[in-house]
Predict the 3D structure of the following.
Amino acid sequence: MNFLSLEEVDSTNLYAKKHLAELDDCTVVTASRQTAGRGRLNRSWLDLGEGNLFVSIVLKPSAAFNKNFVNLTQFLSVCICKTLEDYELKPDIKWPNDVNISGKKIAGILSETVMQGANFKGIVLGFGINILAGKEDVKKVADKAVTSLSIETDGKFCDKNDFLTKLLNLFFKNYNKFIEEGFCFIKHDYLSRLNFLGKEISVKLPDEIKCGIAESIDNDGALHLKKDNEIFVLTIGDIL
């Protein structure tokens, strides 16, 4: 791993994409402050203070795009869960890759593929994790329930650098194996951290809302939603 630490940036993902050509494979870009953080589906990621993690990993695993790359966010969500479990917590995954604790979001992930014409140049895998945010800080996020490592552990475990080191070591320990095998490599670990399968759910898509029973997650990481004996295979969306 190579590390690049910034004091302030609009978005670690935007910075990494802009400087992708000059950044080596497996470069980890971190920032103390992020002024325009972004999440999936064009949502924002609010900066709740310097004690939290704003990170993007530059990945250049091959000269051509591999379909397994689309599941990197799910792989990372499992790694984040396992790291949180080291702190005696019980996180779960909200498909496809948000990490929650007791229904409150603690981590978000955004993966962006960089192309130059038809040529694959790399992936920027970004994530934000609330580490030191306090109860007053999380109230700033008006549209969803949010928590932090500090809140969930009553302030016992609050070293963000220690957390990041554990997470990155776990991620890169299994990264090559995941690239080879894809979602099937993490499927058991991923499914064991879901709590909505078999339940009636609503999923917001870019242009509509689909409702039905969450039947399963297939070997590509897609959600199978059943409604009136019809199965919808969803590869993107937001569970409401």
Remarks:
- The mean pLDDT is 91.
